[in-house]
Design goal:
single chain; 431 residues; alpha+beta; first zn-finger domain of poly(adp-ribose) polymerase-1; 4-stranded mixed sheet; 16% strand
Length: 431
């Protein structure tokens, strides 16, 4: 124990001295101050084409087998889940603008060089998150049934409403036609940067501005002036975090390069196992998982997910069950979670044990016969994981009982005061 502590002290002293030497060279990395939500829904997905039959929704051409592809996850009406709509790598970034790599599912499971390609594209697009001005329009409300996307209130008939054509949420992607999302003028001014109406834009650029009355034009010009570069609208995502809460932090270039080297070697190690595990049959993959104590009933039925789980077990050790509830633990985003939705167990360093290979599989596959378990810890990348909702931004939701009045008919057995107390109680319960 004393020798280990002395080694740790010497290593820390070396690290501190090296950081002092390299204080002049720093690398700026953007990370999030908010805790990582490992159970957050990710609207995008990355993967490799399993065949030549998947097509790109943007260019309508086939995606070659084993090539990198990116997709948008949309809610499936057939079951309670999501279905990916796939795109070529370049076609995806023509249509979508992910804010961070944390919004892309399976990002940390891609090859290291592909992770760098995706990260570079995301950083380039995050600098110019303005939507095309042709996607915005302003008009008088044709009826009283349209709802503001920010405050969830109705827009009165004949009042001015501002909209943005939504092409990338679930319904427009499924039907293939953009849908306008409407806002009150004040609500649009609050969330203008969130929905891509940049600070350098003004009201006269919006389509339909010339068709408005002069008084309404002056109101729009007052509400939507060009903003200063240092002024940003505070907008909260669905997890309560500020959209502008991320800051640029500085890490020494030596620490950053060592982290990147460890991530590159880790990715190469895992894909050395993945490239061989692909050759196994589904029954053999299930046998390997069962021999190592994995619960197949609580895991995904997807073959690729099983291969990723086995590669993680071969590289770092078999995952033990959840210490809280005893269910299966799986890797997600940048850590490990319990598959039980009721259990809130999350960790970055789970308990592991040596990976076991059955003798009949060793005799059949050479890479399994040559495999030897070495204890390692999985390195997590220092990346910004925002995981925010994709398109519909929401403001303060109004109280359902705020503008409602109850009408009581018949003979009252209780007093009027008690009935009022009960009605106010249920309005609070439903809000």
């Amino acid at each position: 124990m004393s020798s280990n502590s002395s080694d740790d002290n010497s290593d820390s002293s070396k690290a501190s001295s090296s950081s002092q030497k390299s204080s002049s060279s720093v690398h700026s990395v953007e990370v999030s101050h908010e805790p990582i939500n490992l159970r957050a829904h990710q609207p995008y997905i990355a993967g490799y084409a399993r065949s030549n039959y998947s097509g790109c929704r943007e260019c309508q051409e086939d995606i070659p087998k084993d090539s990198l592809r990116l997709g948008r996850l949309v809610a499936d009406a057939r079951y309670d889940g999501y279905t990916p709509i796939w795109f070529h790598f370049n076609c995806f970034f023509k249509k979508f603008q992910p804010r961070t790599t944390g919004d892309i599912s399976n990002f940390t499971l891609m090859r290291y060089e592909d992770q760098k390609l995706i990260e570079q594209k995301v950083q380039n697009h995050s600098r110019r998150r303005q939507a095309p001005i042709s996607s915005f329009l302003v008009e008088y409300a044709r009826s009283g049934y349209s709802t503001c996307l920010w405050c969830d209130r109705n827009i009165p008939i004949g009042s001015v409403r501002i909209g943005r054509n939504d092409e990338n949420s679930d319904t427009p992607l499924l039907i293939g036609t953009p849908i306008p999302r409407w806002f009150h003028i004040n609500c649009f001014a609050r969330c203008r940067q969130k929905i891509g109406f940049g600070s350098n834009r003004s009201a006269p650029e919006i389509s339909g501005f010339e068709d408005l009355k002069r008084f309404d034009q002056q109101v729009l010009i007052t509400k939507l002036p060009p903003l200063n570069e240092n002024r940003r609208t505070s907008v909260k995502n669905e997890y309560g975090a500020e959209a502008s809460s991320s800051e640029s932090l500085s890490f020494s270039s030596d620490d950053y390069s060592s982290l990147e080297e460890s991530l590159a070697s880790q990715s190469n190690l895992m894909y050395s196992y993945i490239d061989n595990l692909v050759k196994l049959k589904s029954s053999e993959l299930n046998a390997l998982l069962e021999d190592n104590g994995y619960d197949l009933s609580s895991m995904s039925d997807d073959r690729v997910d099983k291969i990723y789980a086995l590669a993680d077990a071969m590289a770092f050790g078999t995952l033990r069950s959840c210490p809280k509830c005893g269910d299966q633990i799986i890797f997600r985003i940048a850590g490990f979670i319990c598959v039980n939705e009721v259990c809130d167990y999350t960790t970055s360093l789970p308990a592991r044990c040596p990976f076991f290979v059955n003798s009949w599989l060793k005799n059949k596959y050479q890479f399994l016969e040559e495999y030897q378990y070495v204890r390692r810890d999985r390195v997590m990348p220092k990346t910004q994981y925002g995981c925010e909702s994709y398109y519909p931004v929401r403001g303060t939701r109004f109280d359902p009982g705020e503008q409602l009045r109850l009408l009581l008919l018949g003979v009252r057995k209780k007093s009027r005061r008690r009935a009022r107390r009960r009605s106010s109680y249920w309005s609070r319960k439903t809000s």
